[in-house]
Design a protein that fits this description.
By secondary structure, the chain is α/β, with parallel strands linked by helices. The protein has helices at 17-26, 62-72, 79-99, 131-144, 223-231, 260-264, 290-304, 318-324, 326-333, 390-408, 433-450, 457-480, 485-506; strands at 7-13, 32-35, 52-53, 105-107, 110-111, 113-114, 124-125, 149-152, 155-160, 181-186, 192-202, 235-236, 241-248, 268-270, 309-312, 344-353, 356-358, 370-372, 377-378, 532-533. α2 (62-72) packs across α3.
């Protein structure tokens, strides 16, 4: 493959549904350079089993979907955002279908619609239990065949190019920052390229790898959010990390989620004594929003001193289960669990980042020329808790809107001659990778133990002190060492950990996904109040 170009019209960082959909929307209007640090199909989108929440059923309505989203978001959703995302969703789902996505149908005229926690109607458009993979497959095929698009796999963006990188750097003001592209590492050659762009969009996903147990793939290290924060973008609501209630608990298997659609299909939760327990925690039982189900499981585990609870599908039709959830069935069979006859051991795990880079209704950040879409964004849709299967919906809508806005913006010309090239003189090739692996594990363990489903000031303060030491240690190591993927990712997850902790300490209440024993009640005065962080505060 040819080296990364020095200039492009559109620079897309990340290859999930948001990045791919945005790419297709702008590709007819200029050159697109898509940077992804792994294979193009390795993304959180690819792991999304459930589907896309959208209104298609006769007994459903846009208003019901809006109200379900607002209720799950616990007073922090931006109602105007919720309304246009829900309203614009069905047309974009149909567009995916026209592109070739093979959604599951009841018959030629009707989609098969699942139901998940927090939804009052069946509205989950899906492709069996591998929706993300199917959407990704089709979008990747389309992107790869477009003549204006070049995909650079095994490339990782390091930092955004802004006024911070001017040769004669003036004082950088938080209200007057421009993004002109990014510094990008070619992992295979070890070279760092400076890629200028008229427009840059971050679609690099969330930060599940900040936690020891996560449903996210290894690439979910918060790179996009970290880069944007360092550049001066506003970050919001990082305290709201969604823990998926049901991920497989098994020593012989990497954690993978057991889709919420399984509970929507009729599965029930039982503790180690075989007791169904959700009736003690929520009127919607297993179909309560994820934050409630995750805390209920956490409570049961602590109350009984057990390592896991169990999903029970044994009362459901075995043939129907195998047909509806073929991927889950096969994955569990690999560890000798037959989900039609055996209980499935499950525990909560970090799953989704509800906060992120603050965007307006068109996906634009507070940095000129920089957009954001997908899990890396804080759009106002999810509030304090994401409603199941609204994530792919949000990615589609904001990728579409960001593309339209990008095309309407006047062209800017990066100050190519005034930007400092990448300089790694006086650095060395580190051989002590044990330091990186040890620090990464320590960050993830600290976050799991002290900044998990249930928090307290004592736990958060302890985590903050230790993470601050690690962050400084990593930053010093970064400045003295030639960059590598592992070092870039360690730098980013350490920064993300500190942002999550700081956000959690600032919210003096329990709301949605953020529950603290020091402030167990929800404070009405904090409704619609976001936790905003900026590098300019440091």
């Amino acid at each position: 493959m040819m080296p990364l170009p020095s200039q492009t019209d559109f620079l897309v960082i990340g290859s999930g549904i948001a990045g791919l959909f945005y790419t297709l929307k702008v590709a007819d209007h200029g050159t697109v350079t898509l940077v992804t640090k792994k294979e193009t199909v390795e993304s959180n989108t690819n792991y999304a089993q459930g589907g896309i929440a959208s209104v298609f059923a006769d007994d459903d309505s846009l208003q019901l979907h809006i109200e379900d989203t607002l209720q799950a978001g616990a007073g922090l959703c931006h109602r105007d955002v919720v309304e246009f995302v829900v309203r614009e969703g069905p047309a974009l789902v149909r567009e995916l279908s026209e592109l070739g996505v093979g959604f599951t149908h009841l018959d030629e005229a009707h989609l098969h619609l699942g139901r998940e926690g927090g939804h009052s109607r069946h509205r989950i458009v899906h492709a069996r239990d591998y929706t993300g993979r199917e959407v990704e497959r089709v979008l990747v095929e389309r992107v790869r065949t477009h003549p204006n698009v070049t995909v650079y796999e095994n490339h990782i963006a390091i930092d955004l190019v802004t006024e911070h990188h001017l040769r004669d750097r003036p004082g950088v003001r938080r209200d007057d920052i421009h993004c002109w592209g990014a510094y990008v590492l070619d992992k295979q050659s070890g070279e760092v390229h400076l890629c200028f762009a008229r427009t840059t969009i971050i679609t690099a996903g969330g930060c599940g790898q900040v936690y020891l147990h996560t449903t996210n793939p290894a690439i979910a290290t918060g790179d996009g959010i970290a880069m944007a924060y360092r550049a001066g973008a506003n970050i919001a609501n990082m305290e709201f990390i969604q823990f998926h209630p049901t991920t497989l608990f098994h020593p012989q298997a990497r954690s993978f989620l057991i889709s919420e659609a399984v509970r929507g299909h009729g599965a029930v939760l039982r503790n180690g004594a075989g007791e169904r327990f959700m009736n003690k925690y929520a009127t919607r039982l297993e179909l309560a929003p994820r934050d409630i189900v995750a805390r209920a499981i956490d409570s049961e585990l602590k109350r009984r001193g057990e390592e896991c609870v169990f999903l029970d599908l044994r009362h459901l039709d075995a043939g129907d289960i195998r047909q509806s959830f073929p991927s889950i069935y096969e994955r569990c069979r690999e560890v000798n669990i037959d989900i039609t006859r055996d209980l499935i051991p499950v525990v909560p795990a970090a799953h989704y980042t509800c906060g992120g880079v603050v965007s307006d209704e068109q996906g634009h950040t507070n940095i000129a020329g920089l957009y954001v879409a997908g899990e890396a964004a804080m759009t106002g849709l999810h509030g304090a808790n994401r409603l199941a299967s609204n994530s792919l919906l949000e990615a589609l809508v904001f990728a579409h809107r960001a593309a339209q806005s990008s095309l309407n913006e006047p062209a800017t010309h990066p100050p190519v001659d005034d930007i400092t090239p990448w300089d790694d003189t006086d650095t060395y090739n580190a051989e002590e990778w044990v330091l990186i692996s040890h620090n990464r594990k320590e960050v993830r363990t600290l976050m799991w133990d002290y900044v998990g489903i249930v928090r307290s000031n004592l736990r958060l303060e302890r985590a903050r002190r230790r993470i601050e030491l690690l962050k400084n240690e990593v930053e010093d190591f970064y400045k003295r060492t030639r960059v590598s993927e592992r070092l870039i990712q360690l730098r980013n997850i350490t920064l993300l950990a500190s942002l999550i902790i700081e956000s959690a300490l600032r919210r003096k209440e329990s709301r949605g996904l953020h529950f603290t024993t020091d402030y167990p009640a929800t404070d009405p005065a904090l409704e619609q109040v976001n936790t905003i962080l900026s590098v300019f505060e440091e």
